[in-house]
Design brief:
Elements: E1 4-5, E2 11-16, E3 23-27, E4 32-36, H1 39-45, E5 50-56, E6 60-64, E7 69-73, E8 79-83, E9 89-96, E10 99-105, E11 120-121
Parallel strand pairs: 4-11
Antiparallel strand pairs: 1-2, 2-3, 3-6, 4-5, 5-10, 7-8, 8-9, 9-10
């Protein structure tokens, strides 16, 4: 299953929650993609890390089920948006240092993205029971 292509030639990818109550579209022009090992991402996903892709705010739109979303976190700063029906993390709103980006968990995408994670971040706080076995660069925190 592939995504759509816009008039500008940039592909659009579909994504959504586990139960189907919330859906979104995102431009397939990620600013970055990485595996985050911070404790918050581990707790949010229940996994060793969260594969995320960052995009500009204008490249992301909720296409269905916005009434089923609930926010966790700072409404004016960094917060996560979940489906209130199944609890899936749909996206994170990252407003800090004067800029705003949207992070989507790559696992919520229906269509395959053109970019794969290129690094591991916050490995300084990774789960002690998980061993990183690939050759991607590793950063103790967020890279410069």
């Amino acid at each position: 299953m592939g995504g759509k292509t816009t008039n500008s030639g940039i592909g659009r990818l579909r994504g959504g929650c586990m139960c189907g109550a919330v859906s979104y579209e995102i431009a397939d022009r990620f600013l970055y993609a990485m595996n985050c090992h911070c404790s918050k991402c581990r707790r949010t996903t229940g996994s060793a890390f969260k594969p995320i892709a960052g995009v500009a705010v204008e490249d992301f739109v909720v296409t269905g089920g916005s009434e089923a979303l609930f926010r966790h976190g700072d409404a004016e700063g960094i917060h996560d948006m979940h489906c209130r029906v199944c609890g899936s993390l749909i996206y994170s709103w990252i407003a800090e240092n004067g800029s705003v980006k949207v992070h989507v968990p790559i696992g919520t995408l229906i269509d395959p993205p053109s970019m794969k994670p290129s690094m591991h971040i916050f490995v300084g706080s990774k789960a002690p029971w998980y061993e990183i076995l690939d050759d991607l660069p590793q950063f103790e925190e967020f890279p410069d």
